[in-house]
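Minutes, structural biology subgroup

Action item carried over from last meeting: produce the structure token record for Proteophosphoglycan ppg4 (Rhodotorula diobovata). EB confirmed the sequence was re-checked against the source entry. Recorded below for completeness.
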Amino acid sequence: MGAPQPVMSGPLSPAPPSGASESSSPPTSAGWTDSLALEYLEDEERFIIAFDVGNTGTSVTVAHLTWGSQPLSPSSSTLRTVLTYPFSSPSLTPNPSRTPSLVAYDRHDRARAFGAECLTPGARALALEEGWLFAKGWKEQVKPRGAAVPPTSGAAQLAQPAEGGNKLLKKLRAPLSSPRQWSTTPPTAAPLGGPPSASGDSCRPLSSARDSLRSLSSEGLLDAAGSQAEPTGTPTSASRAPDRGIDGGTGALADLGRGTTARLTKSKPTDKPSSLSSSPDPHQLYHGPRLRTIYADFLKWAVASARAWYAESTERGDETFVRCWDRARFVFAIPADWTGAEMESVRAAMEEARLLPAEYERGRLTFVKEPVAITFFAARHTKDSATWLEEGSSFAVLDAAEEGVSIIGYTVSSAAPRVKLRAYEAVTRVGAVLSAVSDLLAFRLTGTKFKVPLLLSHLLDEFRTKVLKRFAGAAQGPAEYRLRICPAGQGEKLEKAVDSGARIREGSLTLSSEDVESCFRPAVDAIVVRLSSILPRGNAKHVVLSGGFSESPYLVSRLRDAFSPSGVSLVIPDIPTHAAVSEGALAFFLSETLAPRQARHALGVQVAVDWATQWERGMHKREVFQGSGGRRLVQGKFGEIVACGTPLSRATTWRRTFNFRYRLAAQDPTFKATLWSYDPSIDDARDRWMVDVDGKPLAAYREVCEVRADLASLIGASEVHDAEGKAWVQLQVDLVVFVGEDSVEVAVEWEEKGKTVRGPASRLPQSAF
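Output recorded by EB:
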């Protein structure tokens, strides 16, 4: 049977969604609901890696975008957080989705261990023997305490990081007393873009400072190759000749091995002079690695760890990682008060790590502010986001990290088509509980042989694990908490240590519930006071909680007691927030950069129009033929099925109905139809005629594919009519366009014996739509 020539009718509206899966997500604001249903319908694969490098822990989230994936859907597996890192274990890393932000350097500035490996007995032993420096808390050095926040008016304010600067200076003590140290810099202020600085030499994180750092930056995505950073044509790192290969010229992929890049072996003598000193004396003052180098080494290791996890947890994961590496994009979460200078430091570190080439295209590296990331994480994992993400509403984000707390107020300036936030109150930082605990422990151990950084650090780890997320108040829970002063197996004497003045017995230090509350109460009081100021200014009725300390029952109880009477609700995600920032940053990036795929060309078929009822000027010049029933028809009109600009979705099908007679004498039950694409940009007349008056095809129309279907069973099930001795049946079929597994497809569909039957589909090339 040849292609039918039905009388042209107006374009049919898209059919109701057939087979569309209903979203299992809770009702939300219109803009966020649209984002949840967003489908990636592009031929090119994309691989995106998001970092949250915190003061104490780091998380990495990845997304592999392929045709038809819904990366923001709560049930989607496209967006995944790395769950295991090298040397991860419950004893070293209680939160498996986070790894400690630690790098161990030897006296030649070589990175020897990363993450949880730095906490292993083997690493500790080598650190004591060789005088290693354990770099941590370096995030605070990027924007030191008290640094001025300049206005963000453009790239002209940025300066090249000094090659000799950005050093983390630390005077190493005797190896046996301090194998793990907080890396700090000299107490000197630096101009914008110069070496970062910090005041004092503290063994606690700088985030405990009770000061306010105000952000003057706009909210949203900050492209590293945009106005917030130097042009990509002026790389900060030394120029490198681009080598061609699967790594896009970075040369980094070969370095991204599975596991750590450094071996825990004794350092061998080298003929190459050290950049610091040839003397291994651990008492000597030495400069240590540059801040940018620490970031570069750690980020490269984090990507290697993500690759190893993805290869082990995903079918053909390593093959996918390698295939997409040269086009991989990176998202970096940053504090709300960071400006162009701080972003430039990270960008330079990415180049030094060779994760990006010296001159990379716009869009490869993007920064997302941490409070925005937390907001989008909460929107994905809360049941009542419709109430606090309404347009015009306000809320506060309380990022209660273990090492410091930041608070910022937001107003939802737009809810659709995308959620847009505007900060109505600048970010404020308040003290952390662990700072008070550190002071309490140091005071308790004063005058004892146990007041050494190694034991204090372990006691803080014990407090994190046993107390921080369990303490609910002095009147609730246990009356005492016992903290081991050293890891198991680290020494028989310490495991049986006794000091009545410090309340140490059998190797454990005892804190009463009153002691614990004396640390919790001032920190939570400061949070309540700050929120009491921020919430009324924006008429905010919600507080979004995130961070490790947000899981504290004491904090949650105090906040509810303080603000519930005034109608303020707490927004607590349904899942743990260990990776809230990295996952939220990636979710926000996707919601901002991905848009519904729209048909670039119209799709349709060639049809005939009725001379009598659909006559147009100039039709008399075209060939007229006689159709069924004696009607006079003119062939060559474009019958649109999918309009140009129509959003494509798996939940929608587009169809056009064909009614025609089939004579049984034809003995060819095959239905044939040709699908055409129409580009309105090159059609001057735009009268939808596919051919000129001489029957020649016009340039705006191109043949896409032919679709066929065997209608023998439909013909056999249809009622046979007889006219003038000729038997025939009346048939009705639909030409259906839909989004398939890997492309847009077209097929013939019909009803037979009460069931819908669909013939074989033809795949459309990407250029056709």
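Discussion: The chain has a mean pLDDT of 77.
Next step: EB to file the record with the rest of the batch.
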